[in-house]
Amino acid sequence: MTSSPTRHLWISAAPSDGPSPLASPLPSRGPSAGPAGQPASGAGTGSGTGAGTGDAPRFTVEVRCHRRLRGPYTGGGALIRTVVPELTADHAALLAARATEVIALAPDLAPMVPIAPQTLTALASRAERTRFYSVARTLRVAHGITELLVDWARALHPGGVELRFQELDRADPTDRELVAVLLRRCDPALIRVVVDEAANALDPVAAARASAAAEAAAAQGTGAPSIADDELARALRAHADPVTRPAPAVAGLPAGADPAQLFVDGEGTSTDPRLAAAYAALPAAERAARHEARAAYLAEHGEPGSALGARLYHLEHGSDPLVAGTAFVEGCEVCFDGGFYEAALDMAVRGRALFGDERPKPYWNLTNKTGACLSYLRRGEKGFSYFAELRAGSTDPEIHMNSCYMMAMLYTRHLPKNMHDETRATEWVNTAIAFADSRPDPHRRVFVGAFMRNAKALVELHRGDLRASLDLVNDAIAMTDADLGPDEQLLHRSVLRYNRAQILAALGDHEGSLADYDLVISRDPDYGDYYFERAGEHRAAGDHAAALADYAEALRLSPPFHEAHFNRADLLREMGEEEAALRDLDYAAILDPAHVDTLVNRADLLIALGELDRAADDVRAGLAMDAKNVRLLCAQGTLLAESEQAEAAFASFTAALEADPEFAAAWANRAVLAYSAGRPADAVDDLDRAVALADDPVLRANRALALQDLGEHARALADLDAAVPALAGEDPDLLFRRGTARHALGDAEGARADWAAHLAAYQELGEESPFAQELQRLAESAA
Q: What is the spatial distance between Cα 313 and Cα 483, in angstroms, rounded to a whole number?
């Protein structure tokens, strides 16, 4: 019998000793032919046969991922176009749960899936769009697709499936991210992922030489990064077995074939050196004409997504830069609206290069998008030059207004924290407001004026002036409400109310904040983030049931949402629902294994539950990412103390204090070790620091114990006077200790009162006081 695979596969081509032999011919020339007999569009193929990896036959889907074919999700879209038709008949509920993710990968499948949540963001026209997706959205989509694929395989292919991905070295980052998640989350016994780097490596040396010539001849712009050290590379190293195989044989060309046309019809993705060389040898005018013909064919017959990939490639190498530039603007806008910022950046850079020394309107649009994409991708410091070019090259007030707005957002949001400068942000946003308030059209003036005041409110929020921030948002709301009808600009107005809800929450006005959240949810009921934020406000207001209901709705409406599970776990633990909290933290760690705070919280919870081995695993993983994390160092100290490694535990707490001397828990935990080791003076010193940082009845009670050992009964009594009212109901021994302190200080009446209360508490519990004999001795001594 053949066992199920336990690892994914990472196939690379073995070096060849000589020219590859000719094999079966390529398809005859035609507008839809692809390299090596593959579909030019990047379509996937499904079959029930084995994939030649030595395992039992299983259903196999093979897809190409070259970004030049379909842009973002070239491979993921092809895969999902195979999966969705299989699910529509009997498993519509699975599709309904992941409709948002399916449409993100393949918008053309929208008629085949249940209606996805309809948010104002998705429904707004481009002119009305004032909210854009987080850069993290594609990761959330990848997790949702992964879960859909697991459900599909379990329902329809329980014997297992194999997903084979080719050309990931030339893929858009969305496909690389998706495959990285699949590698990490899929059990190879059910879904085996095969990353095949050998499929197109016909003759690596010759192909590289010919491809370089083709690239130079076509003045190729930017390309995707090779597999280096991103999440995909790390996932391959961790979860896939590397294997090599000979590069596939070079196919023979049929009689009469035009290799240059085959290269063009393959969207320039072929690694066959003969095709690339023939293409490079074409006269420039003929190359351009062939590209334009191919672009026209794709526009009429191309498969979904080709407008973001192959068609752009061909127009880029045609003869009309304005036509190509317009197509690049549209492609860039589509990708930007979808949250595919790497693809949008690639299109913006390539589109700008088309215009040479000319500066038509599309050039400025792409320049703005270049800076905006860099900002969203956390590379904002590289965006300065593009916004400066906008201001230097144009006198259009709208361009200057938008450039000033983006400069303000760089300084207050998009730059690294150490580069934030709220003064400069204020300068830039004030200039943006000046441009906005000068717009001649009154409706446009109100729209952009409110938008820019909302932007300044963010700057004031970051400056710590909550009242100024609230005043600005209120002004923006008043402007729009006075100018617009009740159903106009709903997205923009919802964003303003949402921002006011956050400011009111920061001011402690929970009632006002919840009222605004209620309003935006009534306007945009399918937007999951609103429920997530309202859940936090319900919790702050003490309504835990409402908070849990909102977290559940946020999770139902959204692709997998790490923050919602993380925050809900914290609430559940506060409510005493520790097992439910652990389930949320387990899932949060799956969604984002690099989120250190998830490991911190889970380690702390596991310690409380007594699962010390699992807790130790989280501590080790977290410290590998953040070696000076004080909470993890404290958790490590606690675990070491539990295993009676006192010196190592003391060193761990000390390391935490070296990293953050203001962390009270480390002082408190180290004090416990010192006291247990018979060093009450050291314990008092550490507890003095802890109490100074975070005065707490438990810390006072512990310090009193050490002070009594040192004979400092007056200080001990002061601590116990603070601790007893808060803790004596759960720990009646504190009454005994306070009585002892009073006795030592000559307050016999106070001592007798505390001891009597101590004994009464134990009598009520039906137990004998552990200090009964000592109390009897003290009573006899007093007599």
A: 44
Task: Point out the residues of the chain with pLDDT beneath 70.
Answer: 1-3, 15-57, 199-228, 782-783
Using only C-alpha atoms, the chain has a radius of gyration, in whole angstroms, of 33
Question: What confidence score (pLDDT) does residue 228 get?
Answer: 62
Q: Give the predicted TM-score (pTM) of the model.
A: 0.88
How far from 157 is each of 152, 304, 470, CA to CA, in Å? 7, 27, 55
Q: How far is CA 2 from CA 53, 183, 220, 244, 457, in A?
A: 12, 22, 47, 21, 64
Q: Are 629 and 623 in contact (CB under 8 A)?
A: yes
Reading the block at residue 627, the tokens are: 């070696």
- Rounded CA separation 339/473 (Å): 26
CB-side neighbour CA atoms (13 Å) of 739? 21
335, 308 in Cβ contact below 8 A?
yes
| Token output for 205 | 């040396």
Contact predicate 69/306, CB 8 Å = yes
The two tokens of residue 667 are 């002082």
Can you read off the two tokens belonging to residue 337? Answer: 């609206």
Helix axes 612-625, 630-642, angle to 10 degrees: 150
**Helix, strand, or coil (residue 610):** coil
Give the Cα separation of 79 and 210 in Å (integer).
30
**CA–CA gap between residue 120 and residue 104 (Å, rounded):** 16
Q: Which two tokens stand for residue 145?
A: 């697709």
In the numeric block, the tokens 């084995």 are attached to: 50
Strands 250-251 and 22-23 turn out to be: parallel
Give the model's pLDDT for residue 129.
85
Q: Count Cβ atoms below 10 Å from residue 395 Cβ, excluding itself.
A: 7
| Inter-residue contact 719 to 707 (CB < 8 Å) | yes
How many H-runs (helices) and E-runs (strands) does the chain carry? 38, 8
CA atoms within 13 A on the CB side of 405: 23
**Residue 725: partners with Cβ closer than 8 Å, 6 or more residues away:** none
In terms of Cα–Cα distance, which of 152, 175, 233, 139 is closest to 591?
A: 139
Distance CA 670, CA 679 (A): 11
- What phi, psi does 619 have (nearest 5°)? -65, -45
CA nearest 164: which of 58, 85, 15?
Answer: 58
Which tokens in the block code for residue 214? Answer: 């083709």
Classify burial at 233, counting beta carbons within 10 Å of its beta carbon; exposed 0-12, middle 13-18, buried 19 or more.
middle
Backbone angle region of 219, left / alpha / beta, with phi > 0 → left and psi within -120 to 50 → alpha: left
Q: For residues 408 and 436, is the Cβ–Cβ distance under 8 A? A: no
The whole-number pLDDT of residue 47 equals 57
3-state secondary structure at position 8 = strand
Strand partners, 191: 161
Task: Name every residue whose Cβ is closer than 8 Å to that of residue 52 and which is 6 or more positions away in sequence.
Answer: none
Please give the structure tokens belonging to residue 294.
């191919």
Cα–Cα distance, 159 to 323 (Å, whole number): 50
Sequential DSSP letters for 185-221: H--TTTEEEEEESSTT-SSHHHHHHHHHHHHHHHT--
Structure tokens at 52: 């030649």
User: Residue 222's pLDDT is what?
Assistant: 35
CA angle, residues 453, 459, 461, in degrees to nearest 5? 105
Residue 151 tokens read as 């459900």
Paired strand residues for 250:
22
- The answer to whether 267 and 309 have CB atoms below 8 angstroms apart is yes
**12 - beta bridge partners?**
244
- Using CA atoms, how far residue 391 sits from 176, 401, 415, 428, in Å, is 36, 9, 20, 12
Give the span between the Cα atoms of 485 and 483, in whole angstroms.
7
In eight-state DSSP terms, residue 258 is -
* Cβ neighbours for 709, distance < 8 A, ≥ 6 positions apart: 680
Q: Are 200 and 167 in contact (CB under 8 A)?
A: yes
Residue where the block lists tokens 């013909």: 293
Alpha helices in 526-561 (DSSP H): 528-540, 544-557
